[in-house]
Design goal:
By secondary structure, the protein is mainly beta. The chain has two helices and ten strands; from the N terminus they run H-E-E-H-E-E-E-E-E-E-E-E.
Length: 167
Amino acid sequence: MDIATAKTVFASLAGGTFVGLDSLTTPVLKGGKKNAMQGRVTKLMYDAQVMCFSNNNSNAYENMVRRRLEAEGKEADSFELSPRAWGTRIAGTPFVEHKGKYYLEVIFMRAGKSTYFLDGAEICKSSIEGLDDKPEGEQGGLENKVIIRTFALESIVALRANGQEWK
């Protein structure tokens, strides 16, 4: 998806918006160049339910983490939002710009289904050499974690919101 299409999608969506998202990515595998599958595996994630925020008045991620900490009876004031590790958030949008590329920052509400492919042919996830599951951060001891992801726009194959779909 290009930035013009993505901007069109979110121009009509205000504040926090639930969005369906499909993406096609190439996972980095352990083993570097020695891994014969490196660069040959793709992951199609479809039907994910995410929330996009414009962060106009405050940081939606921080607010959500604090609300969940309070709901779990934990000290919400102890949570401090770290600065972005990379890229620049474009004010009033869910987009991040980094080195001339654009990304969509989302909070996962429900993970989508994933299918993996090796050289275009479907492959079982357990058959992929060096595929690593990344652990989530601590988030102040939060049990019901707020999962945030940043997708390169070029990896997004479809967005759905308010009965419309963009590809």
